[in-house]
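Sequence design from tokenized structure. All designs in this work follow the same two-part layout: the structure record, then the generated sequence. An example of the structure record is given first.
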């Protein structure tokens, strides 16, 4: 009976530890997976933004206001974002929207969840003359895919996983389900 209680105590300690580590994620499957809901992923993305970049010393681009959707059948997420581009010479700002979908992977070295296989589905900038819009959309799509590929969605703090690692687990495979983004807790290699 004592080994059973010891195992349950260890499982409870791991569960409590991971709840403290990730805070917003729920733990299920006997403490072997963490799940971030669609709303929690949206909040994590919003906390990472707005993302601002200067392109070719000509344009300043700002991306914010993410709206996330789960795509469980393709194991991906979809995110719609507001886009603002400002021409540095004229100071004129154009606003629009962008829709992307992407997979997720855990980067063990960086202790981070990263975007992967980013695909821009739609990029529309308001108030551009029609001839310019097509070229800018194509160029913007290529640039956005390159900028977002391998971008960090969430980075664990060094102290976040120390206790979990002490219990012999770490984040592993990531999948998108109808309940949210599910991270499997894998045993540490010893």
């Amino acid at each position: 009976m004592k080994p059973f209680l010891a195992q349950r105590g260890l499982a409870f300690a791991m569960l409590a530890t991971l709840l403290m580590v990730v805070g917003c994620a729920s733990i299920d499957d006997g403490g072997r997976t963490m799940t971030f809901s669609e709303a929690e992923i949206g909040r994590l993305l919003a906390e990472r933004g707005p993302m601002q970049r200067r392109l070719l010393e000509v344009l300043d681009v700002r991306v914010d206001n993410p709206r996330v959707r789960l795509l469980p059948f393709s194991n991906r997420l979809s995110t719609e974002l507001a886009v603002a581009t400002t021409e540095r010479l004229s100071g004129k700002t154009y606003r629009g929207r962008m829709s992307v979908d992407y997979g997720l992977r855990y980067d063990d070295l960086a202790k981070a969840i990263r975007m992967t296989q980013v695909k821009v589905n739609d990029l529309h900038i308001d108030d551009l003359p029609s001839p310019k819009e097509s070229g800018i959309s194509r160029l913007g799509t290529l640039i956005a895919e390159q900028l977002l590929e391998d971008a960090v969605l969430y980075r664990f703090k060094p102290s976040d996983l120390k206790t979990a690692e002490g219990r012999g687990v770490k984040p592993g495979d990531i999948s998108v389900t109808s309940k949210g983004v599910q991270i499997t807790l894998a045993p540490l290699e010893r």
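The chain has one domain: 20-187. We note this feature because it recurs in several other targets discussed in the main text.
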